[in-house]
Write a structure and sequence with these properties.
Blueprint: E1 17-18, E2 30-41, H1 51-65, E3 78-83, H2 95-103, E4 108-111, E5 114-115, H3 118-124, E6 128-130, E7 132-133, E8 142-147, E9 151-153, E10 156-158, E11 163-167, E12 170-174, H4 179-204
Parallel strand pairs: 2-3, 3-4, 4-6, 5-7
Antiparallel strand pairs: 1-6, 2-8, 2-11, 9-10, 11-12
Subunit structure: Homotrimer.
GO molecular function: 4-hydroxy-4-methyl-2-oxoglutarate aldolase activity; metal ion binding; oxaloacetate decarboxylase activity
Keywords: Magnesium, Metal-binding
């Protein structure tokens, strides 16, 4: 990014971190094109006089007020990028819906909002980079705004189709106009780094692994 004149551009806040890391195969890493969506704080509440009424109102909220229409547009290689209502204790990326997005072809999820069911997410090895762990559910707390729009994620403008790269160090957004140029430069840097570190491995008598091959 520096080499193409984008110093300090696209570097997402360090507050957005991987929920888990796998040092055996780096399967927590994600790279793909942004499919964006935004949720906002709710301006209405749920008032139910019985448990059954609450169940019906909750069902209505999920269907009409805080649905996930963007999920129908997921293509192989996408990264679901959600601008969430960050001042609410909501974990809208849970173990079920995130799993469905991954099965639909998404490489992972990046959000400034919250994740929940984190034990299951970690066990299922679903790549999520989130701002916090949230306990609440969507009904009565957040509502859907729009998808396929520019969003602000960790102080960075993310547009539909921009490239998202995320690993243990954090998240970077590469503007789509610069992707090819950045990819060539990044590959050169990576290959040089592998070659240098491979020499250290050999000098130390360590078995070579995929990070230096």
């Amino acid at each position: 990014m520096d080499a193409v004149g984008l110093q300090n551009v696209g570097i997402v806040s360090r507050d957005i971190r991987p929920l888990w890391r796998n040092f055996d195969d780096f399967s927590h890493r994600i790279c793909g094109f942004a499919l964006t969506a935004r949720f906002v704080p709710a301006n209405q509440a749920i008032h139910a006089s019985s448990v059954e009424e609450y169940k019906q109102l909750k069902k209505h909220w999920y269907k009409e007020i805080a649905p996930r229409p963007f999920a129908d547009f997921i293509q192989d290689g996408d990264v679901v990028v959600i601008d969430g209502a960050t001042n609410t204790d909501v974990g809208f990326c849970g173990s079920e819906n995130t799993f469905s997005w991954i099965n639909a072809g998404a490489r992972g999820v990046v959000t400034n909002g919250g994740a929940r069911d984190t034990d299951e997410i970690i066990k299922q090895k679903l790549p999520i980079y989130c701002g916090y762990i949230g306990r609440g559910i969507r009904p009565g707390r957040i509502q859907y705004d729009r998808h396929n729009i520019p969003v602000n994620i960790g102080g960075v403008l993310v547009r539909p189709g921009d490239l998202i790269v995320a690993d243990g160090d954090g998240v970077v957004c590469v503007p789509i106009e610069k992707v090819e140029e950045v990819a060539v430069i990044a590959r050169e840097i990576q290959n040089d780094d592998k070659a240098s570190r491979r020499k250290h491995y050999e000098k130390a008598g360590l078995a070579l692994d995929f990070t230096v091959l």
